[in-house]
Amino acid sequence: MKDKPVMNEEQSTSKKKHFFLEQKWHLYLPIFLLGFSHIAAGETSEKEIQPVTDIFDDVGLTYDNPYQEKMLWGGNRKFIYQQDFARVLSAPTGTATNRSSLRFQWNKVAGQYYFNADIKPIVYWNGDDSIDGDRSSDADFKIKELYAKGSFGNTTVMVGDKIIVWGESDSTAVTDVISPQNITDLVFTSLDESRISQTMLIVEHYVNSNQISLIINPDIEVDEQPLVAQGQGQTVESRMDDKDAEIGINFKTVIGNGDFSLMFADLTDNQGVDVLVKNPDTTITVSENFYKNYLMAGAAANLNFGDIALKLELAYNKDRAQELNPDMFDDQKYPYGYGISDEVLFAANIDYQENGVRDWSAGILHSRYESDRSSFVMDEGSYNELFFGVTNKFMHENLTVGINYQHTVETKAAISQLSLRYSFSDDLALQVDFFDLRKIGGTFNQTSAITRLTYSF
Which of 390, 387, 399 is nearest to 424 (CA)? Predict the structure, then answer.
């Protein structure tokens, strides 16, 4: 498997392959790719699959359960077999992913308690980028979620491995900052599959249509970034800022035809920055990859007007680390080897469903930085990303064709996607996606295709 920055509870360091400025285009990826990854698997969002039961009615909880008639060990179960095969079509061509997985989802209600398991063993076959060296295959076992939840009056308490999804937008990561992502495979991994669970405590309290959630996460993890074979970069240590636990508070209410959220979080950044040092011979090198703590305050709204949905998100990030340009590095001005800036992010997305068979979506993400950025890698004072997508169903709604486009105005970076999905039945589907990445990070271009076969039983 590929190396990744993994830190234990004592914040120990681990080795990670790392590429310098001309190959650090992946700094731009986490927000930029999010709008495409959930479409690539034909999925919409990360949702718990849980049975509708009266023990949660008092606190206003209702759950979809598409497989409640399939039972195992006294609970509801579902298996999902998935076969992925992706090729890079532009030079250098080659296989990107070649893997099989069998996802197992199970849940059970026992009195006032609820138990949920979502696990996924994966086999990587010859040519998959996740295989080290000359091995012909490899395997992994991923725990997507594994937790227990209890209902006590108007309060629920959850303990275990959980994925947290904040905010309303499917195409931007403005307030969705709790759970990190594995984006080592770029566009080849769906949003649902990319999310990394963490062991945490969640307490939720319900009053009428209001909900307040407290998250305490001592199992701090960070994004797994792509390692592109453009060259062998230097190996550096990865280190997280000192923190015992991440804390998040989310207040959500329903008013009229919309729901509204206010969020606050004390976090370790999911994205690391290079720490630069000036050597005695005046050369500049990277000493480590650092994940700094920061504060986030955010708000989100989801307004529904029949066939039209408007999703808004706003976030203010306090003292977030910024990567410095080594050609302009001043160790007197930046003694810690990285910059710090406050950020304001705003996203607006509009979705329109036409006649039940055609879906339109468009949006914008505006990012503004509250500091002098002349020495930063991302040196613009603001960035604007535009999103557009349309999907249409054909052949008695068995075939879904989608086109998506994402463009950053300031950097001219863009991602285009053509998606074809055919459902042979409710349980069996084949999807083919073509991606074209242009000027990601200023220099990275790639054309690729992925086929994904899924069978549920």
Answer: 399
